[in-house]
Amino acid sequence: MNNKTVKIVGAGLAGCEAALTLASLGVDVVLYDIKPKQYTPAHKSPNFAELVCSNSLKSDTTEFATGVLKQELRTLNSFVLGCAYKAQIPAGKTLTVDREIFSSEVTKLIKGNSKIKFVCEEIDSFDNTTPTIIATGPLTTPKLSQYLSKKLGLSLYFYDAVAPIISADSIDYSKVFIANKFDNLDGDYINCPLTKQQYEDFVSNLTTAQRVPLKSFEDEKVFEGCMPVEVMAKRELNALRCGPLKAQGLVMPNGQQPYACVQLRKEDALGTAYNMVGFQTNLTFPEQKRIFTTIPGLEKTEFLRYGVMHRNSYINAPKLLNSYFQLKQQNNVFFAGQISGIEGYVESIASGLIVGLEMYCYINNLPILNFTTNTALGALANYLQAANPNNFQPMHINWGLFAPIDCPKQLKKEKIAERSKNYISNIYKEISKWKLEEQQ
């Protein structure tokens, strides 16, 4: 097989998955990242695949589209998803991880792989011949951003927000209860119930609170999938009750359902810190402390990390990429992860796996793998090509991206998951043949 070395820029979720996938197929990889010499505004760990916004990789069952995507990644032996399961902490039916353990596991795999050479260096361009994967994430360094803007028209962006993390010891457990939604088993979430009056006062405080000004940007475009709570609160009085404060499926010890409820999810394996679920925010730090401590049980909260908001960049994929994440105007370059227009942790891992496989096909003159919209992997790739380039927005995996299936409505999700499983199994057989050929 071809002995070309592949250059990967960015050691986040997508870049690490692509590197490990290619290395498993016998390809030499040079992986570049600015850490630990430099850090973006949102990063602080020297390890690879650092999770910034949340520590949840969403649902782990095929009742949800994310669960189908995970099923496909498990079948194809995703390395980064495997690390997530090693770092898993209890959180109901969701895959939630200890961030530090997770990134440490990924870093061990990268540094322990003889086919991967890591270089701590900022890359600010790419050439026309070297097989290259750009996986720099939403916080691409200024030099590379400027290069991409000039070469590709990287002018799209949205604002992303991070939720606060609080100390477990500072929670008043006499005012909260432990439970999972729609689950009678022992719970993994701490629930802070609000009465109608408490909820309305909370919303009123949010709508008049002071936010951090975003002076350096032209206007304020907020990504719907990561909406700050204060922005959501201004839309309509009950918006939060239909979103992060939704109480449906929760039962208090007295047998009643709360009017509204704030949920806290474990941030680490020891349970010393909790994440305020869905509480992405751009409020000033003093305002976060003033308003969030009005939540029952959080009156004396110690904030280990306040919520912050930052700008995320991504390319106009429908204009620039084909359905294999490959640059139309320069086929030696592939994009992976959030810079490509994929949104979400699992989706970023998935794009890294796809791009790793497609790059292997490219450098070995093999037919590019076609996952098709019968699969979650193919549905994500197809979205990047088929979306409207005039109004392109990052996208999570969802049922609407899959190819239609002819079956009763109540069986639709089950049948899509089954079809996906069968299709991916065949792709796995093809990849297994590649590995056998590499060994011979």
Percentage of residues in DSSP E strands? 15-25%
CATH architecture of the largest domain: 3-Layer(bba) Sandwich
Order of helices and strands: EHEEHHEEHEEHEEEEHHEEHEEHEHHH
CATH homologous superfamily placement of the largest domain: FAD/NAD(P)-binding domain
Please, how many helices? 12
Instruction: Please report the total strand number as a whole number.
Output: 16
Give the CATH class of the largest domain. Alpha Beta
Word description of this protein:
This protein has helices spanning 13-24, 65-75, 79-86, 99-111, 142-152, 196-208, 229-235, 285-292, 317-320, 345-363, 376-386, 412-439, and strands at 6-9, 29-33, 56-59, 88-89, 94-97, 116-120, 132-134, 156-161, 165-167, 177-178, 190-194, 260-266, 273-276, 303-305, 309-314, 333-335. The longest helix has 28 residues, at 412-439. With 440 residues, the protein is of the alpha/beta class. It has two domains: 6-161 and 312-439, FAD/NAD(P)-binding domain (3-Layer(bba) Sandwich); 165-307, Elongation Factor Tu (Ef-tu), domain 3 (Beta Barrel).
Concise overview:
With 440 residues, the protein is an alpha/beta fold.
Key structural traits:
alpha/beta, 16 strands, six-stranded antiparallel sheet, 12 helices, Elongation Factor Tu (Ef-tu), domain 3, 440 residues
Which secondary structure elements does this structure contain, and how are they paired or packed?
Blueprint: E1 6-9, H1 13-24, E2 29-33, E3 56-59, H2 65-75, H3 79-86, E4 88-89, E5 94-97, H4 99-111, E6 116-120, E7 132-134, H5 142-152, E8 156-161, E9 165-167, E10 177-178, E11 190-194, H6 196-208, H7 229-235, E12 260-266, E13 273-276, H8 285-292, E14 303-305, E15 309-314, H9 317-320, E16 333-335, H10 345-363, H11 376-386, H12 412-439
Parallel strand pairs: 1-2, 1-7, 2-6, 7-16
Antiparallel strand pairs: 3-5, 4-5, 8-15, 9-13, 9-14, 10-11, 11-12, 12-13
Helix pairs in contact: 1-10, 2-10, 2-12, 3-4, 6-7
